[in-house]
Design goal:
single chain, alpha+beta, Ubiquitin Ligase Nedd4, Chain: W, Nucleoside Triphosphate Pyrophosphohydrolase, 2 domains, nine-stranded mixed β-sheet, three-stranded antiparallel β-sheet, 3 helices, 15% helix, 38% strand, Nudix hydrolase domain-containing protein, NUDIX_hydrolase-like_dom_sf, NUDIX_hydrolase_CS, Nudix_N
């Protein structure tokens, strides 16, 4: 039903539009469905990276750096009325119980197959340098040295690609801002090996060496 007047919605091709849309049959309101923007942080502290083990589906029990419990970095959907950097910091606090200083943008990955856009920032733990899993979103939060990262337990393809780029930049001594498209095989899992690839990738070097920032 229409969010404006409560009338019935039907699929239609509006005049001058090349896409089928949900159109209200009473007031003609067009309910556009657009890609979702996911924001998050890759947070480091004393050379280690903060990851969360997801407490909710999809990928419950895996790790991630953006708020989405599996193994991942803290991340989630951007809210209306907030900047992308503010949303990334909020998600880190909500999922990992950690306050973070945003250092700069790190990557922008488009995933057309699931209609999502990922914008991740580089961040550092801020005083008092504490973190703790925030249930139910996260089961566990921990700092990992680069060689300790459980690559086979990461939640999402975007996490795997972002972390590998981050570690490569860190090893080179200079961070870049990355952009690319993550192509996923239709019907594949969120981080199924061999089912995704990064294409149209480019990296713009930042002007401040990472050694000066870290």
């Amino acid at each position: 039903y229409c969010r404006m007047c409560g009338g019935p919605m039907e699929l239609a091709l509006p005049e001058g539009d090349g896409q089928w849309r949900h159109v209200c049959q009473r007031c003609s309101y067009v309910d556009y469905q657009n890609p979702r923007l996911v924001v998050g942080c890759i947070v480091q502290h004393e050379g280690r990276i903060l990851l969360c083990r997801r407490g909710i589906e999809p990928q419950r029990g895996l790790w991630t750096p953006h708020p989405a419990p599996s193994l991942a970095a803290p991340a989630g959907y951007l809210e209306c009325g907030e900047s992308s950097a503010a949303g990334a910091a909020r998600e880190t606090l909500e999922e990992a119980g950690a306050r973070v200083d945003i250092q700069g943008p790190f990557c922008h990955y488009d995933i057309p197959g699931i209609s999502q856009i990922y914008v991740l920032f580089r961040g550092r733990l801020a005083p008092p340098f504490t973190y703790a899993a925030q249930q139910p979103e996260s089961l566990e939060a921990a700092l990992f040295a680069p060689e300790e990262i459980p690559w086979d337990q990461l939640a999402f393809s975007s996490v795997s690609i972002a972390l590998r780029s981050y570690l490569a930049d860190q090893a080179s001594g200079r961070f870049a801002v990355h952009h690319g498209v993550i192509q996923k095989r239709k019907g594949s899992g969120p981080n199924e090996p061999g089912s995704f690839q990064l294409v149209d990738h480019f990296a713009l070097p930042t002007t401040v060496p990472s050694r000066q920032q870290d």
